[in-house]
């Protein structure tokens, strides 16, 4: 879990990539767009031999590159099965488990932590999972530059970094503009599924979703849904359970 503060860029000009059809990286290089805050601090953890081998041997088959721009799902997977996108998959254990259990779906994972990406690819290869592709990149930029509007059936965000301190809440990935961009990427009827073990974050997620037009809460009580069986226990949930934390699941449908 991240806790350190990374530098906050002071220069922010209002040039959005989707409007100019540039990538954020290109715009940044030209000094036209600098993101204010990021939801992560890049940890340069060492790769194990297995993770390194998985990245070297299988990136070509399983890896997706931000620089390649908008993806063509049909070309990528060789079918037009529904697409599940997971943001911040950590070490990828639960993502691989879900992909293995649902070969009728296509899975795309995004994670910034390289050892996690290596671990995920390694496990997918071991489990002979072929319906999964992964990015090692900031999900905000992937959403802006690589994912077509109205193309996703499900977006999953499980146990995002909670950024406990109030002064760091601006670093939380779930913000009003983020939930709006997720809505743009979902097909009508597609579902945004979030889970957190941090009650204050759950309350903020709920507020952002309720204030965002075009979403319907799938909760019968108009707040949280019971933990769906389809969501395997993730590493962070496991840890939270050991510490006696509660877990809050939110599911909203694009209407
Ligand atoms: C607390 S961990 C949870 C990992 C996993 N979902 C689980 O439940 O075990 C949050 C993960 O989100 C990743 N992350 C945070 N911001 C991200 C972003 N903007 N794009 C991609 N990954 C991100 C972090 O690197 C970290 O691995």
Automatic annotation (TrEMBL):
Enzyme class (EC, first level): transferase
Regions crossing the membrane: none
Keywords, comma-separated and alphabetical: Methyltransferase, S-adenosyl-L-methionine, Transferase, tRNA processing
Stored InterPro entries: SAM-dependent_MTases_sf (IPR029063), tRNA_(Gua-N-7)_MeTrfase_Trmb (IPR003358), tRNA_methyltr_TrmB_bact (IPR055361)
Record: residues binding substrate: 165, 197, 234-237
Xref: CDD domains: AdoMet_MTases (cd02440)
PROSITE patterns per record: SAM_MT_TRMB (PS51625)
Enzyme Commission numbers on file: 2.1.1.33
Binding site for S-adenosyl-L-methionine: 86, 111, 138, 161
Range of residues in the leader sequence: none
Pathway connected to this protein: tRNA modification; N(7)-methylguanine-tRNA biosynthesis
SUPFAM superfamilies associated with the record: S-adenosyl-L-methionine-dependent methyltransferases (SSF53335)
Reactions accelerated catalytically: guanosine(46) in tRNA + S-adenosyl-L-methionine = N(7)-methylguanosine(46) in tRNA + S-adenosyl-L-homocysteine
Function summary: Catalyzes the formation of N(7)-methylguanine at position 46 (m7G46) in tRNA.
UniProt similarity note: Belongs to the class I-like SAM-binding methyltransferase superfamily. TrmB family.
NCBIfam families: tRNA (guanosine(46)-N7)-methyltransferase TrmB
Protein name (record): tRNA (guanine-N(7)-)-methyltransferase
Species this protein is from: Colwellia asteriadis
Lineage of the species this protein comes from: Bacteria, Pseudomonadati, Pseudomonadota, Gammaproteobacteria, Alteromonadales
């Amino acid at each position: 879990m991240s806790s350190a503060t990374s530098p906050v860029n002071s220069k922010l000009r209002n040039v959005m990539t989707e409007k100019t059809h540039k990538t954020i990286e290109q715009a940044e290089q030209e000094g036209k767009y600098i993101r204010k805050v990021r939801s992560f601090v890049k940890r340069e953890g060492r790769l194990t031999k297995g993770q390194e081998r998985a990245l070297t041997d299988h990136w070509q088959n399983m890896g997706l590159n931000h620089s390649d721009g908008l993806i063509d799902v049909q070309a990528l997977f060789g079918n037009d099965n529904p697409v599940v996108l997971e943001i911040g998959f950590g070490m990828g254990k639960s993502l691989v488990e879900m992909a293995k259990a649902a070969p009728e779906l296509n899975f795309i994972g995004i994670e910034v932590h390289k050892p996690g990406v290596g671990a995920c690819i390694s496990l997918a290869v071991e489990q002979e999972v072929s319906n999964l592709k992964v990015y090692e990149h900031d999900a905000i930029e992937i959403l802006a530059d690589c994912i077509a509007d109205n193309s996703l059936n499900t977006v999953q965000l499980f146990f995002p970094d909670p950024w406990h301190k109030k002064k760091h809440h601006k670093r939380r990935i779930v913000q009003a503009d983020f939930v709006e961009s997720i809505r743009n990427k979902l097909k009508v009827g597609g579902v945004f599924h979030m889970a957190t073990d941090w009650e204050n974050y759950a309350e903020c997620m709920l507020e952002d979703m309720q204030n965002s037009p075009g979403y319907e809460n799938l909760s019968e009580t108009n707040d949280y849904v019971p933990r769906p069986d389809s969501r395997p226990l993730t590493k962070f949930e496991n840890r939270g359970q050991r510490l006696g934390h509660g877990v809050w699941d939110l599911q909203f449908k694009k209407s």
